[in-house]
Amino acid sequence: MGPGASRRMERTMHAAEEPAALPPLERARSQGAARVALVLVLSALGLWILHGFLPALAWAVVLAIALGPLYAHAERRWPPGGHNILLPLLATVAVALVFLAPLVVLGVQAAREAHDAAEFVREAEKSGIPAPEFLARLPFAAAQATAWWNANLSHPEAGSELLHRLDNGSLIGLSRNLGREVLHRSVLFGFSLVALFFLFRDGRAVSAQVLVACTRLFGPRGERVARQMVASVHGTVDGLVLVGLGEGFLLGVVYYFSGVPHPVLFGAFTAVAAMIPFGAPVAFGIAALILVAQGATVPALVVVAAGFVVTFVADHFVRPVLIGGATKLPFLWVLLGILGGVETFGLLGLFLGPAVMAALVLLWREFTEGKDRPA
Predict the structure, then answer these.
(1) Which residue, 152, 167, 201, sits at the end of a domain?
(2) Which residues are in coiled coils (predicted)?
(3) pTM for the whole thing?
(4) Using one digit for the tens of pLDDT, what is the confidence trace for 182-194?
C-alpha cells in the first residue's frame, strides 16, 4: 500500500470519528433559539437586579418625555457645547427645585406650627382639651355635642389619658419607619435625577434607538405604538398636571378672599389633588369645613360653589380635549387608565395608565381595520 492510499485511509477514519455537521438551516435555527434564550435570561436577570430602581427609571422617562419639547427649545436657543453637560445639568437642577421647593415650604411651615402644637399638648395635660368654638355653631345637635365634649374631654384626667395612649414605643417605631421611608424615597428621587440628566444629554440617541428597536421587533406598527404612548404622556401632562395647577391657582385665589387659613398651601394641596380624578373636591371640601368650623358659613358655600364650577369645567371640557385630542383616545378610556394606573402603580400610574390604554386602543383600531397603515 502506497503513501497516498495510507493518507486517504486516515482521512476516512477521522471523518468517521467526527460528528456530521448540521445543515445550515438547522444550525441557524438552533443559534436563533439560543440567542432568544440568552436574551430572555439576561433580561430577566437585569430586571431582577434593577427591580428596586424601576420606579425611579420610569419617573425619569416620564419626566424626560414630558419636558422634551421645552428642553428641545432650550437646545435650539442655547446649543450645547462639545461635552453637552451644562444645559442638561441646569435642566435637571430646575426639575429638582420644582419638587423640592414645596417640601421646603411645608417643612418651614411645620416648624412654625410645632411650637403651637407643643403648647396645646401641655395645656391639654394640665386642664384637658377645651371644647372648640365651632361646636356651638353647628346647625343641629350643637348643645348635645358641646355637653359630650365637656363631659369626656374638657377635664385634665381625660386629656392626660388621651395623650398618654400614644406611648413612647409607638412614637419611636413610627419615627423609625417614617425616617426609613423618607431615606428610601430620597435615594430613588436622586437616582431619578441622575437618570434624567443622562436622558436630557443623550435623549436624541436614545429615542432613535428605541424607534429602531420597535421597528425591527414589531415592524411599522411598533413605531406607531411607541409614538402613540409618547403622545399619551404629553397629553396626560397637559391634561392632568397643567390643568391641576390651573385649578389650584384659581381656587387658591378663592381661598385667599374667602379667609381660608394658609391659602397658598391649600392652593398647592388642591393643585396636587386635582391631578387625580375626583381629588379636587376633597381639597376644597376640607377648606370649606375649616371655614364652617370658624363660623364663616357663607364663605364656605362660596368655596364649595367655586370649586364645583372650576372642576366641572376642567373635567368635562378642558381635560378631554387635551388628553383625548393628543391621542384620539376616548375620555372614558383615559379615565379608566388613570384610575387603574393609580391603583396599580401609585402616582406613576397617572402617566403609565393612559399610555398603556392609548397603545391598546391603537392596536385594536388597526386590528379591526384589518391592515397596517403606512407609518
Answers:
(1) 201
(2) none
(3) 0.70
(4) 777 888 888 999 9
Query: Cell numbers 456530521 label which residue?
Result: 20
Q: How far apart are CA 306 and CA 285, in angstroms?
A: 11
Q: What is the pLDDT of residues 81-93, one digit of tens each?
A: 666 788 889 999 9
Alpha helix (H) residue ranges in 237-330:
243-258, 263-274, 280-293, 297-313, 319, 325-327
Nearest to 61 by CA among 348, 333, 297, 262: 348
Instruction: Collect all residues with Cβ–Cβ distance below 8 Å to 142 and sequence separation of at least 6.
Output: 135, 136
Do residue 239 and residue 374 come from a single domain? yes
Residue where the block lists cell 419638587 = 99
Look at residues 182, 201, 220 and tell me which one is the last residue of a structural domain: 201
Q: Which of 301, 178, 338 is nearest to 284 (CA)?
A: 301
| For residue 344, pLDDT beyond 90 | no
Longest dimension (CA), the chain: 127
Residues 317 and 208 in one domain: yes
